[in-house]
Amino acid sequence: MVFNESAEEYDRWFDINKPVYESEILALKKFVPKDALGLEVGVGTGRFSVPFGINVGVEPAQAMAKIAQKRGIKVYEALAEDLPFEDNTFDFVLMVTTICFLQNPLKALKEVKRVLKSEGHIIMGMIDKNSFLGEIYLSKKKKSRFYRNAKFYSPNNVMNWLKKLNYTNFETCQTLFKNPEDITVIEPVKIGYGDGGFTVITAQKKN
Predict the structure, then answer these.
(1) Which of 84, 121, 136, 154 has its CA 20 to 30 A from that of 195?
(2) Percent of the chain whose predicted confidence (pLDDT) is above 70
(3) In angstroms, how far apart are the furthest CA atoms of the chain?
(4) Which residues are 172's β-sheet partners?
(5) How high is the pLDDT of residue 63?
(6) Could you give the residue ranges of the DSSP H alpha helices within the chain?
(7) Are 151 and 126 in contact (CB under 8 A)?
(8) What residues are paired with 152 via a beta bridge?
(9) Are the CB atoms for 32 and 49 separated by under 8 Å?
(10) Rounded CA gap, 143 and 148, in Å?
């Protein structure tokens, strides 16, 4: 698995591309609740959990999990489609650029709903397949070690899955309005989706 073989390289990307990373954090911050019990599914090396005080994560790549553990996160080596937690455990679940790597996204979203408390929130950060950035990633996909096996989706795709599972109270925002290679300062965050390459979707578990 590439995420085991190149975990350190993956983690360095966030330092090399700091304005891109900080733009994504800023967008996620609009919806991540404070002082709430959260879980990150696809925690990777912990780059998104740490800024939001998330102490529990799920990550199948052992090398990535080890880096996250060094950052103080309790990591369960498990799949998104089979979460090792009781029903109604978390106030919110965060997933950042995770949906594109899942074997069964709908099953994973169903599992997220199961472990969320009543009226808990899912918060998803994703590359919008239909955006200019989605097109860039798709064009480079065969050459990219990290995204070679990824399957990108549109926000409408994902929201339709969530609606099937009776999630409600949808909100979206977006950032990254130019090629990440050209981003030298933090990008703005705008409501909605369709223009930015990075979209954040939040929805609430319906009782």
Answers:
(1) 121
(2) 93
(3) 44
(4) 201
(5) 95
(6) 2-5, 7-16, 18-29, 62-70, 105-115, 132-140, 155-164
(7) no
(8) none
(9) no
(10) 7
